[in-house]
Amino acid sequence: MTDKNQAMTDTHYNFAYLDEQTKRMIRRALLKGLAIPGYQVPFASREMPMPYGWGTGGVQVSAAVLTPEDRMKVIDQGADDTTNAVSIRKFFERTAGVDTTERTAEATVIQTRHRIPETELTEDQILVYQVPIPEPLRFLEPRETETRKMHALEEYGLMHVKLYEDIARHGNIATAYAYPVKVEGRYVMDPSPIPKFDNPKMEMAAIQLFGAGREQRIYAVPPYTRVVSLDFEDYPFEPSKADHACDLCGAQNSYLDEVIVDDAGGRMFVCSDTDFCTTRRDGGHVGRLGAPGTEDAA
Amino acid sequence: MTPLLKVKDIAKFYGGRIGCTDVGFDLYPGEVMGIVGESGSGKSTLLNCLAGHLAPDRGQVLFDTRTDGLKDIVTMSEPERRMLARTDWAFVHQHARDGLRMGVSAGGNVGERLMAVGARHYGDIRAQAIDWLGRVEIPEDRVDDRPDAFSGGMQQRLQIARNLVTGPRLVFMDEPTGGLDVSVQARLLDLLRGLVREMGLSAIIVTHDLAVVRLLADRLMVMKSGHVVETGLTDQVLDDPQHAYTQLLVSSVLQV
Amino acid sequence: MIEIENVAKHFVLHNQGSAVIPVMTGAELCVAPGECVALTGSSGAGKSTLMRMIYGNYLTQAGRIMVGGVDVARAEPREIIALRRHTLGYVSQFLRVVPRVPTLDVVAEPLLAVGRPVDEARARARALLSGLNIPRRLWALSPTTFSGGEQQRVNIARGFAYDYPAMLLDEPTASLDARNREVVLGLIEGAKTRGAAIVGIFHDEIARDRVCDRQVDVSAFAPKAA
Question: Taking every annotated instance into account, which residue ranges of this chain make up the domain ABC transporter (chain B) (predicted)?
């Protein structure tokens, strides 16, 4: 991008790209979503300067909640430095001029794709999820008219049929991500494709907002809301992760990515949350293949 | 004895056309009623009005609910009607595909109604599903197969198991043996007869097959052009038909 | 037990020029418990028709047909079903069953229908089938493939499985050999002894004379100047 483009952006776009009327519309949807935790609120999703599937829903939600004083963090699969995260972070740097950070603790708004940060979030933070398919019943009941009715009448037997099928086929509940939850004892909700390892973290102090751009749905979980992962009495929910410690920082209890390091079957496990890993290594924690400090193992 | 279902003056019109009209009858617990007539006679329209799939333009369909006694399903709230539909009622479709989830295993298909009413123990659900598969003569080792791997007759039996697992009191059947081989039909009829007797089911069976009603139904209702033209004991209607249309119907059956 | 008063019947053939065929008028019949009455008359005189009217299989246009306190001529279908289940048995000439059902279950069914335990019903069925000389190896098979005589005996076994207070027998000894005929006559006498009221059609005169107390000629009920 040239300086000329930079200048045009700053002066010609409204704060955070969207016009104020659109942001008001989205905020109304967000407030309704917060008032009815887990309920999918339809909203008039706008065309965004990025393709569907790249977080258009999350971006619109972030744009609607950002203020000039906010400090924003964007992660994709837990990492701040992946294409999707970098693009969205730059988008808001340019269109809103807000500060950005990679530090979870320092951010006020965190937009995420497929992860919840390992660091516990606080009441001063907002977590914005990018959602591809907001309807948890979709794959069992394709009719939207019918799924809406099922939500309205709390007919959720079908959700357990999915889990039943998992156990029948794999011997356990094999659903590893987008694991369905029941919010505040009422609505069954798709938590977006986060690993089920993250599900227990959803009972948190921060506000959680979910945006699905293509599907034009917004939903929300207010702070300290009960979020229960569905299960069977004899097959209780288990948050699972790779049975390793992080090879860089040695963390035992963080969600890990498996990285193939050569073509001879060599592999390593590293924290998917890059900020968490970096912070630990800065604090002197060392894993199997890691070196102390910020130096990379690879 | 209170009737299980009390139907009063049901009418359904499609614009100016009559779907069915002036239909009324009482169905008592344990009774099986057949509705026969040619296609377009209004028998399926009537069945759908009774089962709450279609809203009739006139009339009442009173069902003897477990908690509140006779209640009109036409004016009842939708949640209540849907609750009835998955507990006390069963609906067996002519095409098993309409009544099954083709992407879900046989066990999941049977277990769905249990889970819908709150069953949350996988082992129990599976055990009940297997028990029901056995009752409809589907071997246990097929429990994890999807219905599209089943023959037509098996699919139909699976549909019946899926419907009866919650111990309904009223079963609606729309041409349950239609599209099946004669040999498979006989097996299904025998199965249905046994289940009806063992479970004390009441049933309403829509069919154009007079042999089916002779074997399954206690009573018969003959429909033509949306009107009921004759009712009575099944063998009486078939052996001593009074109405011209019924006489035609009975005399048109091919002899084997 | 069975009382018929002033009963009339005609058929209307709507598809054959609405021809009205009167078949019976002013029929009277009274059968007491323990009594067996034979219907006689030439073929076509209306013996089977009257029998079917008593069973509710044919509609009755006029008069009363009281069986065990129920007027069959006017009863609701479910009343007739209950009557057939608990009071009125019928042994027809032809066996009509669901294909595939084993003979043993066909015979046991009337007992199961009144709620008797399966073991008891099957035991009774076995006793009847062996009494009627149906080979044991056939019991697990459907009777649809049996010979005419075998089917007839299965039909009789089924008809006598439950002790009906009233019974209708349509040619129960037709197509039976001497030995089985004797068994059937024994069953009929047994039913009379326990107090069943029986109406029967017997072409077999010796059998008729042995079990029947009276004869009623249905030709007397033929419509005049038909």
Answer: 5-250
Average pLDDT, chain B: 92
Q: Is A53 a catalytic residue?
A: no
Supply the pLDDT for residue A291: 66
Residue of B nearest to A168 (CA): B144
Cα torsion A109, A111, A116, A122 to 10°: value is 10
Q: Which of A38, A55, A57, A58 is catalytic?
A: A38
Residues C167 and C145: their CA atoms lie apart, in Å, by 27
Which domain range does residue C133 map to? 2-221
From C102, which residue of chain B is nearest by alpha-carbon distance?
A: B190
Q: Which domains does chain B have, with CATH numbers?
A: 5-100+169-252 (3.40.50.300)
Higher local confidence (pLDDT), A248 or C174: A248
In chain B, residues with a C-beta closer than 8 Å to the C-beta of C58 are 236, 239-240
pLDDT the model gives residue C226: 46
ipTM of the complex in this document: 0.88
DSSP assignment letter at C26: E
List chain A residues with CB under 8 Å of B126. 164, 168
Of B208, B179, B203, B206, the residue nearest B191 (C-alpha): B203
Containing B188, the helix (H) or strand (E) segment is helix B182-199
* Beta-carbon pairs below 8 A across chains A and B: 57
CATH value at residue C151: 3.40.50.300
DSSP secondary structure, A26-66, as one string? HHHHHHHHHHSTT--EE--PPP-SS-TTSSHHHHHHHHHH-
Within a domain: C226 = no
Say which of B28, B193, B244 has its CB closest to residue C78. B28
Please identify every stretch of chain A with a pLDDT value under 70, giving residue numbers as ranges: 1-11, 291-298
In a domain, C200, yes or no: yes
CB contact under 8 A, B193 and C98: yes
Q: Cα A41–A43–A46 angle (5° rounding)? A: 150
**How do residues B51-92 score in pLDDT, each as one tens digit?**
999 999 999 999 999 988 999 999 999 999 999 998 999 999
User: What domains are defined for chain A?
Assistant: 2-229 (3.40.50.11310), 241-289 (2.30.170)
Residue length of chain C:
226
Instruction: Look at A168 and B113 and tell me if their CB atoms are within 8 Å.
Output: no
Interface contact flag, A164 B125, Cβ < 8 Å: yes
CB contact under 8 A, B117 and A157: yes
Kindly compute the dihedral angle of the four CA atoms of residues B32, B33, B39, B45, in this order, to the nearest 10 degrees.
Answer: -100
pTM over 0.90: no
Residue B184 has pLDDT above 90, yes or no: no
**Strand pairing class (A256-260; A227-229):** unpaired
Region of C44 on the Ramachandran plot (φ > 0 left; ψ -120 to 50 alpha; else beta): left
- Tell me the two tokens of residue B178: 């239609």
pLDDT score of B208 more than 90: no
Q: Mind listing the pLDDT tens digit for each residue in C160-172?
A: 999 999 999 999 8
